[in-house]
Every structure is written in structure tokens, then in C-alpha cells.
Amino acid sequence: MGEPQAGEPTWWKALENLEIEHEKIEDNELMSTWNGSSQGDGVPKYGWRIALSHKFREKRTPWTVPKIHQVPALVGLSYRYIKFHRKLKRINRRPCMDFFNQQPLRQIYGVPLGGIGGGSINRGWQGEFCRWQLRPGVYEFVTTLANQFIVCIRKNGTTVYQQVLSVHSTPAKHLKSWKWEFPGSQAFYHALYPRAWTVYEIPEHKVVLTCRQVSPVIPNEYKDSSIPAAVFSWSIENKSESDLEVSIVMTMENGNGTKKSRLHHSGHFNEEFDDDKKCSGVVMHNFTYEKMPYTMTVAASDKPEMKVSKCISFDPTSDGSTIWNELHEHGHFDSTNDISENTSRGESIACAVAVETTVKSKTLQKNVDFVLSWDMPIVYFGSKEISHRRRYTRFFGASGNAGPKIALYALQNYQDWEEKIRSWQEPILSNSRLPLWYKSAIFNELYYISDGGTIWLEIDKTDTESISISNHINKHNASKETDVDHLQNSEILKEFGRFAYLEGQEYRMFNTYDVHFYASIALAALWPKLELSLQYDIATSILRADDTRFRFIMDGHRKPVKTTGVVPHDVGDPEDEPWTRVNAYFVHDTASWKDLNPKFVLQVFRDYHITKNRKFLEDMWPVCLTVMEMSMKHDKDGDGLIENGGTADQTFDGWSVTGPSAYCGGLWIAALRCTIEAANILDRQEDSLKYKEILERATKAYDKKLWNGEYFNYDSNKHSNHSDSIMADQCAGQWYLLAAGIADVIPGDKILSCLRKVYNFNVELFADGRRGAVNGMRPNGKVDQSSVQSDEVWTGVTYAVAATMLHKGMLKEGFKTAQGMYKSVWEETGMAFQTPEAILKHNHYRSLAYMRPLSIWGMQYALENTDNDDIASE
Fold first, then answer.
1. pLDDT tens-digit series, residues 180-191
2. Count of CB atoms situated within 10 Å of the CB of 646
3. Which residues contact 518 (CB under 8 A, 6 or more apart)?
4. Average pLDDT over all residues of the chain
5. Rounded distance, CA 868 to CA 26, Å?
6. E-strand spans in 624-735?
7. Between the CA of residue 764 and those of 138, 620, 771, what are the distances in Å?
8. What is the pTM of this model?
9. Distance (Å, rounded) from C-alpha 64 to C-alpha 731?
10. CB neighbours of residue 255 within 10 Å
11. pLDDT tops 50 at residue 463
């Protein structure tokens, strides 16, 4: 393809020899029912595009029943889980992994609204406001019927068309007087996170409406990215011969329409506001959540050529005729009230904001702008013990009345947000060498940054309550208390706050570290200060203990919740008190896991390599030494290589492993190498020599005990039926070394041999190469079905394997591996914006909306940070 052109990023050269079958933009089955012709105003070529009339043919259900031969290993676990579940139910609690109440697959989700850590609302691809996370880390899966956009078209003062812009069928009871059922074949949705477009064609009036949804999610931006708001900017194209008066109306219910919101709380009210004719709308005050009142603000830009009008309050449980008829008669609202009455129990209220404008014949009217903002500044987790301030309160205050201020700020700044988003995305989108699906996947999988139960909190000198309580609970168990205080009072935490996201929307644990190992590349590459902040919190927890004894359901043994000197599995459940009480995970005692400690060292060094923050490396160094010393206890025979204990003591927590293993052994070797590198940087020569000697012995043992001439065996247990299985993720440690620019531990030809074996077997021989990389394959080409996880495809592992392939110059194989994953999840099974942890070959999935798939950003990092000459030489 020749040399990169002037202005092209240097990483493009790595793609010169990439031979892939490029799709055509027109070849999109998701758009097969689209009957329109307009591409809409400003809709980009690339992204995830779907007709509103599309129906997914493949229907999947949550995984629930193991194969017969897998049952014996799960009998005790199942019995103990049932007892544990019933015990929690008696005290009106639920486990952080509730296998009896898994979420069904709803093939409806779209780009979420809002920035990072202030709560999130998902707006589906058919226009539904359908997944709510206002209470920190806790989801309510409900579609709120009253939350809609309506268009009213008038000609010479008479309404000729009025329609809810929703394909929803006419409700049997609520709002049934509204005109529903917009023809889905005349509209399409286009997602390119953090923006989305919906295009509606109204052929009978030669009108095309384009709604552009914009949220402030901007790399390396730590103010606006925290703002809980989204803008809906409408363009109205009038292709007819006549001038038209067009009104766009946004309606919203006060609350999310749940029974809890409607039946058990009262006192909600709405009030109007105007800001010097710049912004006008309605603030909705809501008191559903105990100790956490919040407001939602719906507003529109007040411009000379447009008329903003409001309906302060209407009943969303009525037939809706009052508001519908007023709009139909006038094209706007004539509200005279400035505040509504408070609701009683069982009552609901909603509001509507309309923008009316005249669109001349054969013209395009742009920037009919609406905004939705929400303001829940002070939050509590489930224990209700400690109050926390959200990050955005640093800029907008914590009084609870910032909704209009946030709304105006969003309307005034969203075009600047878009320019920054375009500058970030354009180098990838304009690269003709990259496949189309990748241009969608790399950005749309990033949805989890804001919609992953994400919480971003302030920590400063006036907000010490959380720190003092945590110290009080754990101080008698703390190791190196001075180090703990130093870490928890770091400048990174003070300046950039505390960040957490869930392992999954169904696996309700914050900052699950074995999984963050995969997802963290997205933070490290795009918001590195948040990644460092998270690492300081993990380091603090490593040096603490919790001697409370808990009966873990895997083996029934009672063990301490947290042991000093080991990495926590997670920093807690949002329905308890995160950071104060860590390790909500109840299956295994993770103090004996073999992957967590090496993963901390690997992430610390990778993060240093990306940020070049020496102070961070210095602060983490003593903690790294602590976890490495603890891990060396797992080297039972003194050969330098750690051993697994015959259980599922790793992130693959349902797949047992005995003795030295490809996965944990590889992580350990990589961690040893990073420790040596860090010691050299910090001029710790004694430590460098110590770990160099261990590394020499460990690599020899790793090769001797696991290398079979083509790949590294799953483990060294010659008596098992899966010891020589081909593990897709066997090069995880090498992925991190390559990302840190280190390639001198395991010979490159062996890594290439492993990756080729994984590609030829785990990818190509599984589901015709169309489902990503299955976790385990047998040397005879059959899927390893020895456990409930070996026959799964883990979405995030597949992307990580693909990234490792890109680092090693296997561009075609890497892209095809990831393509199978993306297309099966997003285009075939309808799991857009809820990428699961795992899918099986047929019928089932596990854990919707999961953290690990953020590892796809490892692919982009590999393209941008692998030496082009090295790629060419492989």
C-alpha cells in the first residue's frame, strides 16, 4: 500500500501487508429492512448501524445447566450456594453474583448517556430509556414508556403530522392516545460511542429528522468527562416545496418508572427554569433513593429563531390526551405554572419540553438542541455508613441544585466535546487499511467505561471520613501502616479522585482485579490518571487484612476475608461499603490464587511504561516486593516457578489446574522480568540480581515442564485429562511484556508457535472460525469440555489474544480472531452494548455487560506501540 502519507500516524505502516477481506458498507444485514434513502445529517460512515425494524434471528439464554460429566464437581458448590443465597434472602440481601436471577437477553441496548462516574442511563437503539444506574453500582432494568421524542409538523398553522418517534406498539393503557408505531423500516440507528445518531424519514411530507446524541467521554479529559449529561441535537431537513413549522418535543418521567419509584415514595415535584434566554426547561426533583435525593433536568437551547415551551407536569399513567391534544392544536405548550404539586404515594409526574421552528422549503435546519442532565451529588453505598461526593461536584458543587447549571454547560460546550471526540477517533476511522467492523468495535466496546456501574468520587482534605473509617476498621491488621497512609493520601487520588467500575452488571463487585488485568489497557491508554488512582487503592488494600472469617462456597472452608500481602479480588460490593470491606467474592478464598499478585506487578510496570510516572513506580515498589515475596511461597520445589494447587485458583475459577501451568507460570515469569526492569530503573541492584537469578531458574523450569514442541501445556499434571490442552490465553504474561516493550524472556519463535497453535485450533477449528477463541482445545481438535469454562469463549480473552497476535506481527490472524468475536456478539446474537463475559458455541451466554472486553484497546495499543521493523521481520 506504500508509505504512509503526510500527516498519517506512524503506526499505519504496521498495516501495510495486512491482507484482509474488507467488507462493504452496504453489506450490513442489520440494515436489510431499511427502506429509506437518506443517510441523515452528519452520520459517519463507520460504526454499528441497524434499522429500527431489524429482528435478531438468534435468541440466547443464560447458561444454567452443566454437562452431565461436569455435574459431580459442582454438587458441593451448588449446595453451599443455595444455603448462602437463602441466608442472604432472609436478611433482605442478595449475593453479588445472583445465579437464580440472571438477566435475560434484551436485544435493545444502545449508546449510554452521560460521562464517567456520575451515573448512567442507557438509551436503546429503538429509542428506549431502558437501563438505569443512578444509585451507585446498582442497575434497574426498566424501560420508561413516557420518555420519548415527538414530532409535530404544521403547514400554514394546521397540524398535518404528529408522531411519537418510537416503533413501540400502542400501549393498552398508559399514553394510548399518542400516535405510536413509527415505521421501523423508515428509521435507522448508528452508534459510534460516545455518540449516536437516529435518522427518521417521513416520506409523506418529505422530511428527514436526524437526532445526534452526544455524551462527554473524552480521553485525557478529567473535568468534562465526569459530567452527568447528554445532548440531543436535532437536524430537520425539509425537502418539500412548502415551508413547514416543525416542533420537536422531549418528554421525561420524574424517576425511572419502577414500582419502587411510583408506589413507595412521594413528594416528587417539577419546576421550570429559564437562564437568561440561553437555556430553558424543567427540573424534576426525586426522592426515591434513601438519603440520595436527585434531580433530572430536561432543557433546550433558547435561540431567536426557535420557540421553547414547556409542560411542567403531566400524568404518565394517564392516556396522555391532554398534552397530546395541546401540542396538536398549537404546536407548542402554553403552561402557566412554574412548579407542580408534590406527588402522593402511587402518583407519577412527567414533563415535556418543546422546540418549535420554521424550516424553509428545500433547507436543512440544524442544532435544535435538547439536554438531559441528572444531579445526585452525594451518594451512599448499600451500608449507608459513609457519604461520598461524586467527581463532578468539584466543578458544579454538591448542593443538589446544579441540574440547570450542568444542562447549560452541556449545551454551550457539546460542540467542543465533539471536536475533541472527532480528533481522537479520526486517525482510526480514516485508516482505509483497517476493517470496518474494527472501527465500530474499538469505540463501541468502550461503552463500559461509563455504563459499567462506574463511580468516580472526590477525595480531598475536606473529605476524610471514608479514609478514617477504613483505617479504624483495618488498622490493627495493617502491614506497614505508614505506607498505607502514604498511598491513600497520594497526590493522584487527591487530584483525580477515586475510580471504580463493576466486574459486570450482573457480577456486582468493584474493580475485580483479575479481570481488570484485561480491561485496564483502556484506562491506561485513554485515562491514565484514573488507572493510576485505581492502582493506589489496590496497593493500599494489599497492605491491609480483614480477619473476619467467611465460609467460601467452593470448598466450604472458613478463611479470613482478606490476607495481608495479597492482592484483593475486588474492592467490594456497592450494596455494602466498597474500599472499607473488600473481597465481596464468595466462591474461592482468593488469597491462594496464583495470578493476582503477578498481575499487580505486571500492571504497575505497564502503567509506568505508558505514563513514565516515576513517582508512581517508586510508591508501588515496596508493594510489588511484598506481593512477589508472598507469591514465592507457591514455589514448592524451589525451581523458581510457582505452582497451582489443584483447584481453580486463578481467573478461570471453574477450570482446575495442578502444578506449574502455562497461564499462571507465564504470568509469574513476566512479573519477574518486570520486577527486574523496575529495580534497574530505581537503581535497586541487589533486588535486580535476586530476581534475575530466580527468573533464570523459572524460565528453565517453565520450558522443561510445559513446552511440548508446539505450545505450553495447560498444566503439568500428567494424570489429568486436560493437562495438554491448548489454552487460548497461555501467552497472557507475554502480552504484558510486549506491551511494555520487553521481548527477551521466552524466545519469540516459541511465542509465535503458541499463537499459531491457538489460532489454528482454538479459533479456526471452533464454530468455523466465527466465534472467537474458545478457552480450551484438545490436541485432537475437539473442544476441551473438562470444565464449565474450558468450553466457553471469553470475549475479553479473545480480544487480548488478538492483541498479542498483533504485537507479534500476526495481523491477519489477530484481526480475524477478534472479528469472529465482535460479529457474533454484536451482529448475530444482538448483545450490543452488553458484551458478555462468555458465550458458548450454541444457545447460551454468561454474565451480560462485562468488564473484560475492554481489552480490545490492547489491539489498538499494539498497533500504535509495536516497532514496525519488528513486525516486518516476523
1. 999 999 999 999
2. 13
3. 796, 797, 799, 800, 851, 852, 854, 855, 858
4. 92
5. 33
6. 644-647, 657-659, 726-727
7. 39, 41, 9
8. 0.95
9. 30
10. 26
11. no
Task: Specify the residue for cell string 412554574.
Answer: 338
Which three three-digit cell numbers place residue 98? Answer: 445472583
Contact 861, 6 (CB under 8 A): no
Residue 83 makes CB contacts below 8 A (sequence gap 6+) with: none
Q: Can you read off the three cell numbers belonging to residue 181?
A: 408505531
C-alpha cell at 6: 503526510
Strands 793-794, 657-659: parallel, antiparallel or unpaired by DSSP?
unpaired
pLDDT tens per residue, range 759-769: 999 999 999 99
Residues 6+ apart with CB under 8 A from 275: 404, 408
Q: Domains of the chain (ranges plus CATH)?
A: 108-426 (2.70.98.10), 467-592 (no CATH), 597-719 (1.50.10.10)
Per-residue cell: 368: 435544535
Going along 99-194, which residue ranges are E strands?
112-113, 120-123, 129-133, 148-155, 158-164, 187-192
- Cα–chain-centroid distance for residue 338? 39
- Look at residues 591, 550, 548 and name the one whose alpha carbon lies nearest to residue 569: 591
Kindly state the helix (H) or strand (E) to which residue 590 belongs, with its residue range.
none
466 pLDDT above the threshold of 50: no
Nearby residues of 180 by Cβ (< 8 Å), 6 or more positions away: 164, 166, 168, 169, 170, 171
User: In this predicted model, what pLDDT tens digit does every residue of 309-334 receive, in sequence order?
Assistant: 999 999 999 999 999 999 999 999 99
User: Percent of the chain scored above 70 by pLDDT?
Assistant: 93
CA distance 590 to 561: 9
Question: Which residue reads 412548579 in cell numbers?
Answer: 339
User: What whole-number distance in Å separates Cα of residue 697 and Cα of residue 703?
Assistant: 10
* Calpha distance 109→127 (Å, rounded): 9
The share of the chain scoring above pLDDT 90, in percent, equals 82
